Amino acid sequence: MTLAVHTHPVFEPLTTSIGATAHHVDLAADLSPALVADIRSALLEHKVVIFPRQRLTPESQIAFGRALGELTASHPVVPGLDAAHPEIYVLDSTDGGKAPVWHTDVTFMKRPPLGSVLRAVSLPAVGGDTCWTNLEAAYLTLSEPLRRLADQLHAEHDGRRDFQEYLEQRRNGEGNTWEGTTVRSLEPVTHPVVRVHPETGRRSLFVNPGFTTRLIGLSDVESRALLDVFFAAIGKPEHSIRHRWHEGDVVVWDNRSTAHYAVDDYGDHRRVMHRITIRGDEPVGPAPAHP
């Protein structure tokens, strides 16, 4: 077993808005509390941290995730890698494991994950990049009157389009245990449109085209129009990054303030990724403004 060594990692920013590459970090080693604290701090600052060409196994990926926080099941509906690794969600492009739409992981549950840890296992010869975007920056691109309106709104998040058929036909109506309860249905949940980050206190748009279906209390026309405005703010290149994967790369992101997009540009070639998620809390919006 490799001894824990705190080597003072370097986190090289990718842009002024989002993303950093970690240098001098071996995630397969036993991570010291100081190094874990550095990684957590970098995650809050940069939102996405890339660890190039790591040597993780399923076991060491899980161990790294546990160093960052309590892990969830692989997914509310989809089973894990195997009985020994129920925490690992396998994203296999030959079995529907593609996500070419901006989304934040599992927002269709009451308590979405705090963060995700994604590892490249098998990559196509070309293509298969992933993009991440800064939802705090997206919020700030809105005009002040629109931000004030967004602060008051709530939205419905619904995972049935993507996972209801899987739950019913491939799991016989019984999914995984999530937050202590076996998932047997995917009823929509409501979250604030603007989420206040529980650690930094900063605000971000907490809607995404993948799972957000409507704004609560608005007409269909109003809801569609405002969601279009919010979705347009999300994917702006000015606050996004695009990562070209190499085998072994590990990327960690803050699920509370980012969205991501898996680029589907590799045809019928196979792409396999392993993802684990860290248990999160229920999203909280801004306090009501005083009259």
From TrEMBL:
Q: Name one Pfam family in it.
A: TauD
Required cofactor names: Fe(2+)
Q: Which UniProt keywords apply?
A: Dioxygenase, Iron, Metal-binding, Oxidoreductase
Q: Which GO terms describe its cellular component?
A: cytoplasm
Record GO terms (molecular function): 2-oxoglutarate-dependent dioxygenase activity; metal ion binding
Q: Where is the TauD/TfdA-like domain?
A: 12-277
What family classification does the UniProt entry report for this protein? Belongs to the TfdA dioxygenase family.
**Name of the protein this chain belongs to:** Taurine dioxygenase
